[in-house]
Amino acid sequence: MAAAAAVVLLATACTREYIQDVNDVCFQQEVLPIFQSNCTQSGCHNSNSREAGYDLSTYEGILRGVEPGKFKQSELYSVITKTFGESAMPPSPYKRLSDEQITTIALWIDGGAKNNSCQAVVCDVTNVTLSGTVMPIFETYCNGCHGGSAPLGNVDLGNYNGIKLTLDNGSLVGSVKHSSGYSAMPQGANKLTDCQISKIETWIALGAKND
Ligand code: HEC
To answer: Could you tell me the distance, in angstroms and rounded to a whole number, from the CA of residue 39 to the centre of ligand 1?
Structure first.
């Protein structure tokens, strides 16, 4: 029994960067970045703008819209699942959250909406590709601002050509590493982890292919 459990944990560790209990979503690594990337743009729900009273850049601010254990009764869940009307969020021109992101948020609320952080395991930089490794990082941490039809700062990280432009001018690596001379990204949020940055750098070192 114990051996079987250990095998499951190892298998999880190989495919994901964070150890997870079954049904336990990691707030700091999986939920907070979705809100920070998709809801805290200037004029929206950050510590200065607080549209509708919401600052969605912190745990406390997000919790105001959540009924722990009851995702369907939670206002934040209700606005991200609405497909039309003024309260459907994020509003145009920003794109809707993906089904996967909505599920992550629902599971997190269902699990008690805890402010939990998951322990990082060994960083796996084998088999790094754009679609399998780098794009999921951009989708979670960046593309609420840099995807969709009106990407902020004219930086479009939703497709290969847009990403390639930021590589060629040095701004992608400069911004995620918080190098001087570049705007620190993700804007208004924590720096990506060293592991996430090494995955991006590994993909670049392998030729930055559209793979
Ligand atoms: C909350 C919105 C927001 C998020 C999230 C965000 N950005 Fe940005 N980003 C901006 C805005 C606005 C600009 C343009 C103004 C500026 O440069 O600060 C920008 C500029 C940039 C630039 C150009 C920087 C330069 O110095 O020329 C790059 C590259 C970039 N972002 C990459 C990213 C990456 C990669 C992520 C995710 C890891 C990310 N951004 C997350 C809003 C965001």
So the answer is: 14
